[in-house]
Design goal:
Blueprint lengths: L3 H27 L7 E8 L10 E6 L10 E3 L4 E5 L6 E8 L4 E2 L1 E2 L14 E2 H6 L2 E2 L21 E7 L3 H6 L1
Parallel strand pairs: 1-10, 9-10
Antiparallel strand pairs: 1-4, 2-5, 3-4, 5-6, 5-8, 7-10
């Protein structure tokens, strides 16, 4: 048999264990949920501003060259939802056409010597206010026709197909 002091000590330990288990079970509900951040990408024709449905989209993060298709969800309306990895700071986007055999040229790189170089966009800016990339594919007098404003969480990418000279250099 237990003495009064031993019984009280056992009761206190049992209550302490019970309270620890209760608190441990309640803690996940009190912690903020890990939200998976996502952005929406719209691919637009650089000359007309019309929506383009690419064959595929390659998304890269933080100057790394490995692409993961599980981040990208291409919708029927042409928009692309991208789930962001937790460590993502920068994003680069390349769209394809002709059954994914050819890459579009992003219009912010259209006048560069090598238009295939990736442009990197800060995700903090995209999430806060949205980014509509510069459009060098349209003539200045027609710039208003192709202009599309981005909303927070949205990246607007203007593209054009490769010209014959760019295709020959490939």
């Amino acid at each position: 048999m237990y003495t009064g002091g031993q019984r009280n000590s056992m009761n206190r330990r049992a209550w302490a264990v019970f309270l620890c288990v209760l608190c441990a079970g309640a803690m996940p509900g009190l912690l903020p949920a890990q939200s998976k951040k996502a952005i929406v990408i719209q691919v637009r024709d650089g000359r007309t501003g019309e929506s383009v449905s690419p064959s595929n989209v390659q998304v890269l993060f933080n100057h790394k060259t490995d692409a993961h298709g599980d981040w990208v969800d291409q919708k029927d309306d042409g928009t692309i939802e991208v789930k962001l990895p937790n460590d993502a700071k920068l994003i680069a986007v390349r769209a394809t056409y002709d059954s994914s055999t050819e890459y579009y040229v992003n219009c912010d790189m259209a006048k560069q010597k090598d238009p295939t170089v990736a442009s990197w966009y800060p995700l903090t800016d995209i999430l806060a206010s949205g980014i509509s990339i510069p459009n060098d594919c349209v003539k200045p007098k027609d710039a208003d026709k192709a202009k599309v404003d981005a909303k927070p969480g949205e990246l607007i990418v203007f593209v054009r197909k490769r010209n014959w000279k760019e295709q020959m250099m490939q």
